[in-house]
Amino acid sequence: MIDAKKQLRVLVSEGSSTSGREAITILGLAGHHVEVCDPSRWCLARYSRFVRKYHHCPPLRSDPAGFLRFVERLLASRHFDVLLPTHEQGFLFARAAAGLASRTGLALPDFASYRAVHSKAGFSRLLDRLGLPQPPTRIVNSAEELREAVRFPSVVKTSVGTASRGVWFVRDAGDLNRALYDLESSGDFAGEVLAQDLVTGTVEKAQSVFCHGTLVGFHAYRQIAAGVGGGEAIKESVSRLAIRAGLETIGAHLGWHGALSVDVIMPLDSATPLLIDCNPRLVEPMNAFQSGVDLVDLLLRVSRGETPAPLAEGRAGVRTHLAMQALLGSASRDGTRRDLIRECGRIAAGEGHYRGSSEELTPVRLDWLSAVPLAMTTVLLLASPQIASSLARGGFGAHLLDRGSIKAIENGDFR
Fold first, then answer.
1. Nearest CA to 235 among 250, 222, 220?
2. Burial (CB count within 10 angstroms: exposed 0-12, middle 13-18, buried 19+), residue 160
3. What backbone phi and psi angles, to 5 degrees, belong to 218?
4. Tens of pLDDT along 350-379?
5. DSSP letter assigned to residue 105
6. Closest residue by Cα to residue 218 from 183, 253, 176, 250
7. ATP-grasp domain location, by residue (predicted)?
8. Which helix (H) or strand (E) holds 309?
9. Bridge partners, 11 (sequence order)
10. Which of 180, 401, 228, 221 has its CA nearest to residue 320?
11. Virtual CA dihedral for 175, 180, 182, 188, nearest 10 degrees?
12. Residue 4, pLDDT score
């Protein structure tokens, strides 16, 4: 652990994502001074007692140059020990790392490595080169190619997308036609599209921290219950040596520096985990923290230029949940008000899947302000359960990238 007497000043790159919100809790519990920049004045991080100062910044999606200038001015005018990219801001920071790293601690790989795993198509090609297992995958560029490539059932994914955006489950011709309509109307065939065989199994995720290509921290968990959009509402820590070995191979090949996470399917008919997606960041690190693996602390150390000793594996069987995700998931599955009230009762009483589980996103006992978004979500869903999907889409905001901003950053045109 970082010396408790050494309180660091940390600038978190956004405050809207669940991953960023959980990182803030871990930083706050460690006693660090936390400031957040985000284009939304009502982001999740605004409702945390651990955030000392909020900075309203330009949107990353539509103004990456303005966002970068804002962060650079902030680093020049206020001292920060670490700049912590908790979501897609890492793509921009990796492109401009030379200027940023001279002003603060920052753990990111070179831009070519970051770019290689940021896109789903790039990650799939990397897995092929390294001989790592993934579901059978075809990469296409047009509607005609997609029709030929799809084998029912499949998952169709745009190469760029996060938080389950740009994903269609295609089980028959009707599903395929709906996916094609969405892809063509949104112009997604301007980029690459993946058709991946749908594998029946358990969804798991693993996250890690690397120091110049060496794995120094690892944690895995499985999904117990899904929330809205397929995200985890309830999760449980697991031990996965095979996934750890795959991540080590990827990180060593890319000379990875910083955080790296993967999504995995554990097939029902096989013991071989299949890698399906990659996120060059920590994804919801609280389950790891509760299991005894403080990946956020480890990332701070790497960001400051330390070479930490690898952390021991955490405890398996530790269960955590996100109450907001659970309620949104219940409502999105045609849940009634009675269903929502029952789910609230199970969460409050710790019954059913919640037995022995702790809250990770809105830990009211640790951070009383986090009760505000949880209460607001509950009231809105009880008033109208049908709005669950639109509420969830509120998290897909201006703090994220789109195809245009990604292309501009890649080309260097954003400046």
1. 222
2. buried
3. -150, 145
4. 999 999 999 999 999 999 999 999 999 999
5. B
6. 250
7. 124-304
8. none
9. 35, 83
10. 221
11. 140
12. 44
Q: H-helix or E-strand containing 328?
A: helix 323-332
CB 196 within 8 A of CB 135: yes
Give the residues across from 3 on adjacent strands.
none
CA dihedral of residues 158, 163, 165, 169 (deg, nearest 10): 80
pLDDT score recorded for residue 6: 82
Low pLDDT (below 50) residues in the chain:
1-2, 4
Identify the sign of the CA torsion 326, 328, 332, 337. Answer: positive
Nearest alpha-carbon partner for 101 in 303, 306, 307: 303
What is the rounded distance in angstroms from the CA atom of residue 100 to the CA atom of residue 72?
A: 7
Which amino acid, one-letter code, is at 14? E
Query: Which amino acid type is present at position 204?
Result: E
Closest alpha carbon to 70 in 19, 13, 23: 13
Residue that has been written with the tokens 């994502």 in this structure: 17
CB 391 within 8 A of CB 328: yes
List Cβ neighbours of 266 (8 Å cut-off, separation of 6 or more): 201, 202, 204, 222, 273, 274
- Phi, psi dihedral angles at 347 (to 5 degrees): -65, -45
Q: What pLDDT is attached to residue 1? A: 43
In sequence order, the β-bridge partners of residue 137 are 196
